[in-house]
Amino acid sequence: MTCRFLSLTSEALWPELLQMLADRGNPDQSVEADVRAMLDAVRKDGDAAVLGYVRRFHCPAMQPPLRVSPEAPEQAAESLPSESLDCIRQAADNIRAFHEAQKDRSWFLTRDDGTILGQKISPVDRAGLYVPGGRGGDTPLISSLLMTAIPAQVAGVSEIAVVTPPRADGTLNPHILAAAHLLGIREIYRMGGAWAIGALAYGTESVSPVDVIAGPGNIWVTTAKRLVQGQVAIDMIAGPSEVLILADASANPAWIAADMLSQAEHDALASAICLTDDEALARAVLD
């Protein structure tokens, strides 16, 4: 992430800020041809194609199986400090309570002539969740797992498969595995990128196809989700993360920095901006 301090004390400097934001609404479409090729390769060659892309982009020495061993999540949870597990549990409880409250429910009514009207809400059989590894596994997006898996569980989805990019040594960040353990998720695959979306959509020798794919990702992942939509359902098409914070001298610089980092960690294209009339605060946020 690149941090910059701009002093917008004159109208002449506003164009510099506007130039930084000029291309936000014009994403690079050149990746689509490559993503189509990746999806076609996965549809044709299955695990072999996935393994080839994992070796090319994430882990050169990657060896099968792609699926994480059943005992790995529990072992990861045992390796973490209790404070970390408590934080994940608290976040999971909060998220679950929210989604329990918003859950759609079936309803029916019978008219005087005997006609029955209503709607029946049923969960899909199988959901695929994409969890970004976070800059080589150093900033695991635990929230992405919690905020996709828990709504699926609340909805009653019976099978949940998680895909997430491995680190350079082929392992997954233990925080991701520990969160999966606390949620009771056991089907986890070491794969990321557009090829992982292809594996969820079309299925491979190792991965059964899913009904819906949810979870954030970079432009390659987002493009892949857009292209497989129709083959499977998806949650949404999302652009790069962005946040704009307006702050005066009373603001806590550590909180502002945390809010900015929580967006900037997602992707090199993310935009995190703080506007303030207090130079001391701005420099404290940078620090």
CATH homologous superfamily identity of the largest domain: Nitrogenase molybdenum iron protein domain
Using only C-alpha atoms, the radius of gyration works out to: 22 Å
Give the termini separation: 14 Å
Identify the overall geometry. Answer: globular
Approximately how much helix is present in the residues? 40-55%
Comma- or semicolon-separated keywords:
single chain, 287 residues, alpha/beta, Rossmann fold, 2 domains, two-stranded antiparallel ribbon, globular
Question: Please, could you describe this protein's structure?
Answer:
- With 287 residues, the protein is an alpha/beta fold.
- It is globular and about 65 Å long.
- The protein folds into 2 domains: 184 residues, Nitrogenase molybdenum iron protein domain (Rossmann fold); 47 residues, no CATH class.
- The protein has a 5-stranded parallel beta sheet with strand order 5-4-3-6-7, sandwiched between helices. Strands 1-2 form a two-stranded antiparallel sheet. Strands 8-9 form a two-stranded parallel sheet.
- Helix 2 packs across helix 8 and helix 5 crosses helix 7.
- The model has no long low-confidence stretch (mean pLDDT 92).
- It starts with 13 loop residues before the first helix and ends with a helix.
- 44% of the residues lie in helices and 14% in strands.
- The longest helix has 21 residues.
